[in-house]
Give the backbone structure.
Amino acid sequence: MAGTAVLGRLTWLVAEVAGLVTETPRVRTILLDVPGWPGHRAGQHLDVRLTAEDGYQAQRSYSIASPPGEPLAITVEELDDGEVSQYLAGELREGDEIEVRGPIGGYFVWEPGGEDPLLLVAGGSGIVPLMAMIRHRAATGDRTPARLVYSSRRLEEVIYRHELEELAARSDGLEVVLTLTREQPPGWEGYSRRVDTDLMHEVAWEPEQRPSVFICGSTGFVEAAAGALVELGHDPLRIKTERFGATGGG
């Protein structure tokens, strides 16, 4: 039975583009209608496969942006040299079809109802699987104390910025900490430096509170953030990481 379940999850399914949402000038969310999709957990990802008219195929992995129980969505950043991301973020249109396979991954997932606070640390498009967790928390009415530390180069590149502002304004225990590492708008009162030990000391939960930690971003970002938390005394076994190249795929 277990083998059958695994094969079922890894079957390619035809997904129709049900909607497109522009998040930033180079990032958009793709809403998908996928008959037969088995459902997913917050933090999982899927594979996308594109097939050209001449039979050439390209495949990439993308984190799932939508929470469990809601229509499937991925958020894609267009890369200058990314053949798949350029198509998905720039050329794909509503009604088009692509193939997807998943969900994939059972380690980097979060479920509501825990007693420990939640610390989410994102670099750039690493926000995507963490946003699925934040949305899942909101949709289920979970009030686990949660803190998002999100590093971006500039304010206009902060993915889901307005939604994050709205969710933080609910005062249900979610805090959002932004740090802009390259440019800051006039009057910016937030952080303007990279995620390091000093920054994490200021904004992270205390190690004694034993938070569940999820970190997602480039390899360098993840290593710096996780290393900073361990240096501050956090239990490495409570730190889950997901890393990728420049932005998570071409």
